[in-house]
Amino acid sequence: MPEPALDVRDLVVRYGAIEAVHGISFDVQAGEVVALIGANGAGKTSTLAALSGLVRPARGTVRLLGRDLAGAPAHAIVRAGLVQVPEGREILARMSVHENLLLSGATDATAMYERFPILAERRALPAGNLSGGEQQLLAIARALLAKPRVLLLDEPSLGLAPKMVASVFEVLAELKRSGTTMLLVEQNALRALRLADRGYVLELGRIGLTGTGAALLQDAGVARAYLGA
Amino acid sequence: MADQIYNAVFIGSIYALFALGFTLVFSVLDILNLAHPALFTLGAFTALFAMQQGVPAALAVLVAFVVCGAAGVILDRVAFAPLRRRNAPPLSAMISSIGVSLILIRLIQLQYGPDLQAYPAGALPAAVFSVGGLELDTLRTVIIGLAIGLMLALTYLVRSTRLGRELRALAENPRAARLLGIDVDRAIAATFFLSAGLGGIAGALYGFATNSPFSQMGQSFELKAFSVMIVGGMGSIPGAVLGAYLLSFGEIASLTFLPSELRDAFAFGLLFVVLLVRPRGILGQRDVDRV
Amino acid sequence: GGTATTSASGSPNATSTAAKPDVKVGVVISLTGVGNVYGPTQKNGVELAAQRINDAGGVSGAKLVLVIDDDQSTTDGGVTAFRKQTSQDRVVAILGPTLSNTAVAAHPVAQSAQTPVIAISNTGDGIVGKCDWGTCDYIFRASLGESTAIPQTVSIAKSKLNVKSVVLMYAQDDKFSSDGFAIFKKNLTSSGITIKKEIAFSKTDVDLSGPVTAALAESPDAIVDSSLAGPAIQVLKEVNKRKPGMLVIGGNGFNTPAIIASAGAAAEGAVSGAAWYLGNPDPVNKDFVTAYKAKYNADPDQFAAQAYSAVYILLDALKRTPTVTSVLHDKLRDQIELTTGVKTPLGEFSFNASHDVTQKVYVVQIKNGQFTLIN
Amino acid sequence: MDGLQQFFDAYQTTIGFIGLNAMLALSVWLTLYTGQLTLGNAAFAGIAAYGSALLTMKAGYPFPLALACGALLAAAVSLPLGATVFRLRGVYLAIATLAFGEVVRVAILAIPITGRGQGLVGIPPKTELWHIFASLLVIAYVCARLRISTVGRAWAAIREDELAAASQGIPVRRYKLAAFVLGALIAGWAGGLGAHFDFAIQPDEFGFARAVQILVFAVVGGIPNVFGPILGALLFTALPAVLQPLQEYRDIFQGVILVLVIVYLPRGLATLLELRRTARLRTVGAEDVA
Amino acid sequence: MLLETSGLTKRFGGVVAVNAIDLAIAEGQVFGLIGPNGAGKTTLINLISGHLRADGGAIRFADADVTRLRPDQLARRGIARTFQSIRLFKGLTVLENVLVGRYVRSRSDALASLVPFRDAARPERERARLLLERVGLGKRAGAFAGELAYGDQRRLEIARALAAEPRLLILDEPAAGMNPTESAALREMLRELAAEGITIVLIEHDVRLVMGACERVAVLNFGRKIAEGPPAEIQADPAVREAYLGVADDA
Ligand SMILES: Nc1ncnc2c1ncn2[C@@H]1O[C@H](COP(=O)(O)OP(=O)(O)OP(=O)(O)O)[C@@H](O)[C@H]1O
Ligand SMILES: Nc1ncnc2c1ncn2[C@@H]1O[C@H](COP(=O)(O)OP(=O)(O)OP(=O)(O)O)[C@@H](O)[C@H]1O
Ligand SMILES: [Mg+2]
Ligand SMILES: [Mg+2]
Predict the structure, then answer these.
(1) Subunits adjacent to chain D (3 or more Cβ pairs under 8 Å)
(2) Does B256 or C181 have the greater pLDDT score?
(3) Given a cut of 50, is residue C13 above it in pLDDT?
(4) Range of D173's domain?
């Protein structure tokens, strides 16, 4: 078995006295899309924040292509190739679309303008003026420009109209076809599991269930808890 | 009249240099760095120290830039970085900077005493030349040129370079900046180096112009710098420059057209009115508070 | 408590001092804060005096001990220090405080404790004689007031320097400067000199080229600048640049070596009235200057000279007071009142009926980088 | 006993100023607790100090009446001022109030009856220590009880999020103004007491440096409760006296202490007993002060 | 009608974010508001709740003209809302957030609180606890609001709005960040509230929630109302499918 692109062992995240994530382990193989689903407060965002170095993991290892990144500063993690599209998009509202794209260190955004023509149209506008869906596309494009080895996505469909959700998932599917490795956190569990090769279910800071996307979709417990069936 | 305009340009340039460093830190980190006047003073005394060792004036300004820049970085490490890590409100940082200012000024006094000092005799250009009947002195003219050059350079840096973009991103959303791979610590260090370095240059140049540096010299600039930043637009670099010249021309003009006792009342009254009429200043950006 | 009790110990074999209890003299000066430009040399002055007095046998055999407190240049600090020295240290008299603002707040404390005070650096009105705050019969002043010095300066300007019109400049938010302004204005007017314009500036102004340009535009015979040394230097330099040779007349603020050091050639010709000047060839002064230089490796300034003199003036009165050790403050007060002709670096010194200075006023002009007497 | 008496006599001014400063710190605490950074309280103290001193000196008012008039005068000035400046927030508000303070200072310099640059001298020393500490007690009690009432909760809500607070039905402007005017009233009361405590006042005592100093008391002491500002005033008023033996190194120590307290107790001395809670607040990035 | 708007218009620079909108919402109704991102939904309710000033048109609430009232005045008349971008009092506890929400219902106790040892707020706290139980946050009463996970913060916003016992409750994407099971629970709660007589305006992108909970739905696009009617009708409307749902919707 080849070395996984992202290998997380025994990760613990604490906020002061509160432990949000209790020693979880999971991995993402190169080229694979893995979904992480779970109820509100399960610890999904906390997990991603620890992976990206926004909070310091209290324990555990995070290996990206064999290199341990646990506890490294955020910018070093991004440069190593672990890039996040954060919850709530976090675009820079006052800077133009173009400037937002260049912030990841790229000098040329042409590739993204080709992939997302709507961004090319809006390139000089302050990013804050974009609609919610457009902002989400911008956040994805911006992350892609940072040349991710592994892309982390935290609820990319949050707050988007159904049509926009569809188009964001189309983009994700296309990324998957082009071989991008992704770890996807989603509340839209149905779509996420359909897209994913594998999935993990996070319950109160522990991994409860794991399996292929299709298998999880069949699971009665998952259906009851996350698909609203 | 022409010589009063020249005076206004000179004073405005010094205000602008002082305010630029102040504004830079404010725009990136939201901190009112009340140690800036002390760094300004440090600049004047660093140049004094260097020149007492025989360093020529031009080089002494450079030394002041580097020493103050480094002091700025240390200041950040000691007084601000721990607060940032603790997510403390910007007000805490302001108070912390008051502490640093006390320390720095006292250190300067321990070395040089509280009295007025003077640069070594003959070390500063004293020549006066005349252009179209206007008596200009070399020192002030050089200072004006240098100040304008530095302002343009800083504006370019922040508007058009990668570092500038990173600083603006950091200013707007530190969390996003980190997620984008921006080395936040390095960017902040750069901010402080530039800010304090500029403050140091301003101090050295002002010290030269008056040839009487003293340990409290920065204090007079504090209130003026607030006015400059507010009038021009908080956190805006071109705004600070504009505000500086507006203030200096306003001061000179009110000297000519008003009873001189009313000048300060006029200046602060004006500041007050600007705040009420256009709180974000002439070139300031509106704060976005979307619901 | 936190006090620097400087026992300026005399020579170790001054045996006679052991028998009698020490004579404690309070000194309240500004060692920190804005007044710390003056406080340190005042401290030098009093300590030098105490050392020399003890070396010479003390106060009729008793050792003179200084209790020095910093007032931080604030009124609160001054009042605190006065309270402490009168109630806890129980000093025989207090010298100070440095700044006039502090003085008017602190002196009442000593007055109500009936402890005599000699002011050593206050130049404004209302410090002695008729005090705004009430009876002040325990307060004396050994520092030449501007209301004594300025009339002399003005009369020399008129008679010797032939000044007919002036522009009068001052810092409106500075007590020293605005006091001086009022006195200059009165005396200039009464001696028939035209004031072409009054220009107020602020002590926080960073550059005075504007006000000076405006002053020169009036083409006066002289510019009168009632300000402290910092602004004065800027005024002198601007004047020199725009109109070399223009006469600049100042008050006590001009009377410091910093003016010559910082303004350089621009200071040449500046005129001011002073209580003391370095080059005074009087033997008492020369002795003082030499001793000061030997101890501190620097020239004294007027503040050091006045502080030094005040200790000797007090000593003179103490010697005349019958029981030195358990001083009855009113007796000491009476003796201070009788001070006449004490030889000090300031010249022969006496107190007048309103407890103020009687001494020679030295109107000096800067010539070749030196203060030189012109009256 | 005698030693104690002596100590008391000697440090009576310092003790008095601790109380006066504690009142001023509480006056700025009110607005800080509401999340508003204002720097006008030194000026309010100044207005009341000059007002009440002139009343006792020139108009022969009895002391308590003069004090009350001074404080009311400060409050009366703060009302229209607050109504205009509370359109501003954050540093803008701070600087607007600061500019107002400077206008007051310059105005005092321009009005002859105040003694202008020379200051006002010969104020009858009517203030006794017990006046100061009784006032402080009452003020601290009122502040502490207000904090846990609906009013205090509304202030805290405004601090955390003005817009959301308005949505809960809180008339935000009115509450901010109330905190401001109450602060001015307290500052005015303290200013009047202070003026009659040490014979003389001058415009510089109520300027920028003083405004910042009051802020330091409150912030270093801590905003979460009313003990913070009192503690801060105590520490930073007593410190210069305590550190007197350090002579020229005193400022350095004072600066170091200031930095250390702020760095290690960023929410103030008063949070020393609740470090855990403070740490939690920190991680959620809650506003504590403006 | 409890709430009526007529010709309501709001411009931002060149953009007409809300363009001549007429709405009429009856007492006790659950009214849905949907539309693509940037259609003007949030802007519309910002106008209704007084956070923005209308450039044109009028708003009537409970038979009174409220067009120019401030948010706090409207809150006192019975309008409560949640925010799309959560705006809790992060540094106050969960319980305190709800207590602030009760502001309009509690009498000022500023003077009463001066009486020593009196705890004026006790009954209020009991009510607040009950409300927290109801939204499932009973155990988190002592946590700071900022410590809650995203979905829990949304629940707390709802609890805070309910604390005011409003006549009209406006919810801006309350289910964002909730999974389908959680949003089903929310739907149940909305039904209960409606049964209690509270009028609800619901903005949501979760079509299942909107269609399941609302009696009437309006669709906005580019600031204009392009359709209004019962859910089934709306879902069948080709213009709505084109602009909002996407042709091959299966959510
Ligand atoms: N800054 C913080 N301080 C304290 N506790 C926190 C903090 N952030 C999150 N938590 C707690 O950690 C737990 C996990 O939160 P997290 O945001 O990771 O959940 P999530 O799975 O992303 O939920 P959601 O689907 O609502 O986004 C929750 O119990 C939350 O209350
Ligand atoms: N304060 C503002 N300044 C400028 N433009 C604004 C402002 N608020 C909203 N807009 C613009 O108005 C339009 C409507 O925005 P609004 O937030 O009402 O949309 P929405 O329907 O709520 O969208 P979403 O579903 O994404 O929340 C958008 O084009 C938006 O960019
Ligand atoms: Mg999350
Ligand atoms: Mg919206």
Answers:
(1) A, B, C, E
(2) C181
(3) no
(4) 11-289
Ligand 1 atom closest to the CA of A44, numbered from 1: 21
Of residues B276 and A183, the one with the higher pLDDT is: A183
Nearest alpha-carbon partner for C21 in C98, C91, C78: C91
Domains held by chain D: number: 1
Q: Compute the radius of gyration of chain C from its Cα atoms.
A: 21
Chains C and A touch (3+ CB pairs under 8 A): no
> Residue D176 is part of a domain; what is its CATH number?
1.10.3470
Buried b (16+ CB within 10 A) or exposed e, C341-368: ebebbbbebebeeebbbbbbbbbbbbee
Provide the residue ranges of all domains of chain B, joining segments of one domain with +.
Answer: 2-117+126-218
ipTM over 0.95: no
Taking each helix axis from N to C end, the angle separating D41-58 and D63-85, rounded to the nearest 10 degrees, works out to 150
Calculated CA dihedral for residues D280, D283, D286, D288, nearest 10 degrees? 70
Q: Closest to C134 (Cβ–Cβ): which among D122, D244, D251?
A: D122
DSSP letter, residue E93: B
Q: Distance of CA D40 to CAs A47, C321, D24, D35, Å? A: 46, 53, 11, 15
B257 within 8 A of B250, measured Cβ to Cβ: no
Q: How many CB atoms lie within 10 A of CB B184?
A: 18
Q: Residue B208 class from Cβ within 10 Å (0-12 exposed, 13-18 middle, 19+ buried)? A: buried
Environment of ion ligand 4 (residues, CB < 5 A):
E 42, 84
Q: How far apart are CA D265 and CA B90, in angstroms?
A: 14
Q: In the numeric block, which tokens belong to residue E179?
A: 């999974």
* Residue among A93, A94, A103 whose CB faces B180 most closely: A103
A to E contact (≥3 Cβ pairs closer than 8 Å): yes
Report yes or no on whether pTM surpasses 0.90: no
Q: Does D165 touch chain E (CB under 8 A)?
A: yes
Burial state string for A163-194 with b = 16 or more CB within 10 A and e = fewer than 16 = bbbbbbbebbeebbeeebbbbbbbbbbbbbbe
Strand partners, E172: E203
Q: Which ligand does the CA of D281 lie closest to? A: 1
Distance from CA of C118 to the nearest CA of B (A): 25
Token representation of residue A47: 């997990």
For residue C30, the CA-to-ligand 3 centroid distance in Å is 60
The rounded distance, in Å, linking the Cα atoms of D191 and D74 is 10
What pLDDT score does C323 carry?
66
The pLDDT tens digits of the residues spanning E99-144 come to 999 999 887 777 777 777 777 678 888 999 999 999 889 999 999 9
Instruction: With beta carbons less than 8 A apart as the criterion, state whether A11 and A53 touch.
Output: no
C-alpha closest to that of B287 among B244, B234, B226: B234
- A132 touches ligand 2 (CB under 6 Å): yes
* Number of CB atoms found within 10 A of residue A117's CB: 9
How far is it, in rounded angstroms, from Cα A164 to Cα A170?
10
Question: Cα separation of C231 and C209, whole Å?
Answer: 11
pLDDT at C326: 52
CA distance D67 to chain B (A): 28
D97 burial level (CB within 10 Å; 0-12, 13-18, 19+): buried
Chain B positions touching D259 (Cβ under 8 A) are 78-79, 96, 99-100, 103
Omega of the bond leading into C97 within 30 degrees of 0 (cis): yes
Rounded-to-10 torsion of CA B213, B216, B218, B223: -140
Cβ pair E249, E63 in contact under 8 A: no
Q: Which amino acid is at D156?
A: A
CB atoms within 5 A of ion ligand 3 belong to A 45; E 150
Answer yes or no: is D77 within a domain: yes
Distance between CA atoms of residues C208 and C218, nearest Å: 16
Question: In terms of Cα–Cα distance, which of C176, C190, C157 is closest to C232?
Answer: C176
